[in-house]
Amino acid sequence: MDSITEVLQAVKGYCREKTVEAVYNVYLKDLSVVSFENSKTVTLETRSEFIEKIVHDRYLPLLEEGFKAVLGFPVEVRLSVPAPEPEADTLQFELPPGGAYSFTFENFIHGPSNQFAFAAAKAVADNPSGAYNPLFIYGPSGLGKTHLLNAIKIQIQQNHPDYKIVYVDCESFTNETITAIRTATTELFRQKYREADVLLIDDIQFIAGKEATQDEFFHTFNTLHNAGKQIVLACDRPAKEIKSLEERLRTRFEWGLTADIQPPDLETRVAIVRRKAELLHLELPDAVADYIAEHLKQNIRQLEGAVKKINAYYMLENISPSIGVASHAIKDVLNDTQPIPVTVEKIINEVSRTYGVLPADIRGKKRNANVSAARQMAMYIIREVTGMSMEKIGAEFGRDHSTVVYSLSAMEKSIEKDRHLRETVEDITNNVKI
After folding, report:
1. Is the peptide bond before 134 cis (omega within 30 degrees of 0)?
2. Could you list the pLDDT tens digit for every one of the 434 residues in the chain?
3. Which residues contact 302 (CB under 8 A, 6 or more apart)?
4. On the CB side of 317, how many CA atoms lie within 13 Å of its CA?
5. Which of 148, 170, 254, 393 can pair with 121 through a Cys bridge, CB separation 3.0 to 4.6 Å?
6. How many CA atoms lie within 13 A of 180 on its CB side?
7. How far apart are CA 267 and CA 269, in angstroms?
8. Contact yes or no for 172/331 (Cβ under 8 A)
9. Which of 367, 283, 271, 364 is nearest to 320 (CA)?
10. For residues 385 and 429, is the Cβ–Cβ distance under 8 A?
11. What residues contact residue 107 under an 8 Å CB cut-off, 6+ apart?
């Protein structure tokens, strides 16, 4: 990448993967750069005031997420409408060639902790449906599962350009299932997934407790597997530890090959740091690479984030890599990559997907059985995870203290008697903490 304009193109590519084609073409495709100030704020120009309002209200967080993914550090995105004389001389931010990270097998650093998963993924990419089907890769967040899924997709696309490849995260699959049921478009939904030559699903743990989604995926799995189509799944835990996963799915997940990924050892971490620096065309002294690898031990994203941060210091402020700079970068990365706080909104959204109801209904006044059950579940998990007072929980749902007390008491009694409900609580709790 040679300029912030090319950075924007990479960001657009990121956003395109996260939205439907129509949204991208109408609202995001024609965005252009006005300025990039102090490495903190980028101003983008939209075609009209109407487009500016839509992008601001709906897609600003996605754009900021995209810039952070490409640059390695957060920036504030501001929007403007066409100006008569745009200031072209503000576009001075430079990135070296190769600044974007490519999720290929060549760029995946493998060692003892991930060698088996890497070899299995490579075998599947080399011979779809002829090696391991399904391939189930599991391990904690940030260790390379998504990288391997992308690498499989890229290699199969190169070797079999005629293949229909569907790659989606489980949260999106669940949302599409719910939408298809509500809008009576299940046939279109099924055509998308059941006519695939290769299906890759990330974060399959989010299927836990969602009965309609599990049922739909069960039939999708059977259709594809019986037709000899390749299925690859990634998860943050072994299938047996997804408590509310139906047994018929658990057994199918274990039909093929299960491969785990563990945190990398020191040598592998050093290799990851050096490879990332090489991709950024950053000359990183061995002592600095060793320092980063010795201090960041659990998460590959943190290793990459530290190198991106050091690269940003060099490009933007002409500060050469050193142990001192690395120390500061590590501190920043650790602060930037702490788990996202579990919010009430996050819990309600996950419960809504599990029960197949709208978040607004959970917060609202509807009293039908499914909505009431979802509301009680949400209140219970909010109390358990956040420790909020009953008064504050009541305020979130527009209800008084006594209603919350009753709901929590009812949930506690039900959990004692109902194993499935207890497992659903555990799975939702695990999912919202990711």
Report:
1. yes
2. 457 888 898 899 888 888 777 678 778 888 998 888 877 889 999 887 767 888 888 889 899 998 888 888 888 999 988 754 433 333 333 333 333 547 889 888 888 888 999 999 999 999 998 889 999 999 988 888 999 999 999 999 999 999 999 999 998 898 888 888 888 888 888 999 999 999 999 999 989 888 889 999 999 999 999 999 999 999 988 988 888 888 999 999 989 899 999 888 888 889 889 888 888 888 899 999 999 998 888 788 888 888 988 888 888 778 888 888 888 888 876 765 555 567 888 899 889 888 888 888 898 888 888 899 999 999 999 988 888 888 889 888 988 888 888 889 889 889 888 888 888 888 888 888 76
3. 142, 296, 333, 334, 337
4. 12
5. 148
6. 18
7. 5
8. no
9. 283
10. yes
11. 101, 147, 275, 279
Other CB atoms within a 10 A radius of the CB of residue 20 amount to 8
Six token digits for residue 158: 């190169």
Cα separation of 259 and 116, whole Å?
A: 7
Tokens of 216: 């739909």
Alpha-carbon distance of 303 to 253, in angstroms, equals: 31
Taking phi over 0 as left and psi of -120 to 50 as alpha, with beta for the rest, 321 belongs to beta
Neighbouring CB atoms inside 10 A of 367's CB total 8
CA–CA separation, 246 vs 207, rounded Å?
A: 10
